[in-house]
Amino acid sequence: MKLKMQFGESLRIVWAVAAKDIGDALKNKVIWSTLVMVLLLVIFYKALPTLTGMAHLPEVDVFDPGESAVMADLENSPNLEVRRVASQAEAARFVTMEGAPALGLMLPEDFDRRLAQTGSVELDGYVQYWVGAAKAAELAAQVEREIAAVTGKTVHINLEGHRLYPALDSMGPHSWAALSMTMMLWMLGLGLTPQLLFEEKRSHTLEALLLSPAHGGHVVAGKAVAGLVYCMIGAVLIFIFNAALVVQWVIAILAAVFGALLAVAIGLLLGVLLQTPQSTRIWAIAVIVPFFVLPVVLSFMAMDLPPSVNAVVRWFPSAALSRLFILSMTNQAPFAEWGPDTALIAGATMALLVVVPGNVKGDGYVGRGRAVVALALPFTWVARVVFGICAIKLCNIGKPLTRQKLRPVVNDCLVQRHTQIPAANEDVPLVLQDVK
Predict the structure, then answer these.
(1) How far is residue 125's CA from residue 134's CA, in Å, rounded to a whole number?
(2) Are 368 and 359 a contacting pair, CB within 8 Å?
(3) Residues sharing a CB contact under 8 Å with residue 114, sequence separation 6 or more, in sequence order
(4) Other C-beta atoms within 10 Å of 411: how many?
(5) Is residue 62 within a helix (H) or strand (E), and if so which, with residue range?
(6) Distance, CA of 361 to CA of 272 (rounded, Å)
(7) Predicted model pTM
(8) Dist CA 251 CA 354 (whole Å)
(9) pLDDT in tens, 356-391
């Protein structure tokens, strides 16, 4: 009974601290500016797949093993951007990389003969899984009209059950969405949570709070709850903008909760050790960028990195979080894929939350805070240079993705696992692997 009463009292204290911080945060201009910045960046990331590509017509990637005579006319169509591909897998990869609705079209090897004999042919077409039924039908109808105008014959494009899902290592709207989800959680956790402790230090209420029945664990738990609330508000905004992309909602929610907790835990550690928002920004460049942002960027460059580097990157919690978000946007996500990443993030979070309470000692870290800030300064420029190089490399990877230049890259780097066109009632998973 006594233990139950102590637990209830602890919960009451934690909630009192959290409720106070949630209310106080609404009056903090820094916190409001961070929320607005997050919203603007979410909108930017949502538009990024379109912004990085050319202002182009609807894209159609055609696999034509029989080298049909109709292809030359289709490629010159003023209403479509038609690209000839070498395999069904390559067509699927190009389609899933598009930020706008695109169509993968499979022409049978004897397309010309069948069209001449019957006057009407049914073709298999494939669209991204997130494209609405009405938009997919509209795109298919447009392609049907173009083929009819060229051949004088009618074709019907069958889209029934033909949905394309991305591979884990592919680029496209799913990867940009995962990047935005990861970065936004880090921005909120690292931007808002330290402010909760800075306000206590500025107003000298932290010492009074620690003299009350609340101890360091209560303070940390309360502020973690407050930070988690604001991170989850940001996560809801992110999910609203990317709801069409998410397939595995359980994994997406788990990733958001554990990712938010990890960001909040790091934010609390910074708030305890440092004394001012300025010092937090310095450490964000010196430590957070190379150890938490850089692994996410490197995870998108996995095909260009040695296996040993990829093996190291996988152990960074931020890269694991990004992988979880990408997994939530695929149709195949076994526990063996997302379980270890979730455990890694949870373990890192628990380790930080165990360390932080013992360091909550009012203003006892003023001297150490100045020392660690001075120590961080030499590393800030190194971190900026390294991050800049990786960002440029990532941009150079992304630019050719919507252009013809990627086809030889795909042919050289990838092999096809599935050569048979699936049945009409099957979803089409995009499954490609690196050449060993």
Answers:
(1) 15
(2) no
(3) 108, 121
(4) 13
(5) strand 59-63
(6) 8
(7) 0.76
(8) 25
(9) 766 565 544 433 444 343 333 344 444 444 445 444
